[in-house]
Amino acid sequence: MRIFYMGNNWLGWKVLEWMSGTDDEVVGMAVHPEGSATYTEQMKNAPGLPESRVFDGSKLRDEEVVESVRALDPDVGVSVLFGYILQPSFLDIFSEGAVNLHPAYLPYNRGAYPNVWSIVDDTPAGVTLHEIDEGVDTGDIWARQQVEVRPSDTGRSLYRRLEQASLDLFQSAWPKWKNGELSPTKQSEEEGTKYYTDDVENIDEIDLDATYTGRELIDILRARTFPPHNGAYFEENGQKVYLRLELTEEA
Questions:
Q1: Which of 42, 67, 68 is nearest to 53 (CA)?
Q2: What is the pLDDT of residue 189?
Q3: Rounded Cα–Cα distance for residues 110 and 105 (Å)
Q4: Cα gap 146→128, rounded to integer Å
Q5: Which of 13, 110, 191, 225 could form a disulfide with 154 if both were Cys (CB 3.0 to 4.6 A apart)?
Q6: How far apart are CA 133 and CA 138, in angstroms?
Q7: Block mean pLDDT (10 aa), the chain, length 251
């Protein structure tokens, strides 16, 4: 199968690395532009594509880019932690459709920071392989797997387990998807949650004069603990003080 790959981050690299060792042919790829890209060089090296077949992911709406990708004659698009919404004109390129690997248990936590919201909202955590449609993480589900949220989890520790679970799910589900062994499941329109990148700003500032339950405050602090990134904070005399929580389970 001829693949056009779109990805970012460690998981994007590892899925691409695995695919490059299968009988699929990666004919082109899109990566994030400088400033939002991670593991770009590793991703470029995995399939060994010429630079002419590596595209700036922020420009997939440009007509010239769309036609260049179309000329590669890909069968399917594969997206892993790719931060751009794909337009119908781009999705029409793929005769077999396009799939996305999302580190959330859809329909819960569509969009950004699913690891944070599973802790803060106590929604199921997990990973999902789903069809890409015109929405954000709203397409039919091909496969999914729950991941336990532990009392000692931080945003970082849960995210790392979601990464590994995502890789495991893709490796097991992809051959079945290609062979037509998976049946799609429509996502519920009544259930589920959705978050944007800016939504964490609503929980990040800890109001020193507000009332929180112990659980609410601990969940915010641990969910936003992801060093070296800043997370939750309080502000005093115009100065922000950032907080990280260290959790250790009883031996």
A1: 68
A2: 77
A3: 9
A4: 9
A5: 225
A6: 7
A7: 97 97 96 93 93 96 96 98 94 97 97 97 97 94 98 98 98 97 92 94 96 98 97 96 95 85
Query: In 3D, which of 96, 228, 13, 236 has the Cα closest to residue 244?
Result: 228
Interatomic CA distance for residues 38 and 19, integer angstroms: 19
User: With contact defined as beta carbons under 8 Å apart, do 124 and 115 qualify?
Assistant: no
d(CA 156, CA 36): 19
pLDDT at 195: 96
Rounded to 10 deg, the angle between the 9-19 and 155-178 helix axes is 30
Q: Which of 107, 79, 76 is nearest to 1 (CA)?
A: 76
Q: Report the C-alpha gap between 148 and 162 in whole angstroms.
A: 10
| DSSP secondary structure letter of residue 105 | -
Q: How many residues are present in the chain?
A: 251
Residue-level pLDDT at 63: 95
The single-letter DSSP state of residue 140 is P
Give the amino acid at 61.
R
Looking at residue 115, what DSSP letter applies?
A: H
pLDDT at site 188: 86
CA distance 29 to 44: 8
Cβ atoms of residues 133 and 106 within 8 Å: no
Give the number of other Cβ atoms within 10 Å of residue 161's Cβ. Answer: 19
Instruction: Point out which residues pair with 77 in neighbouring strands.
Output: 4, 98
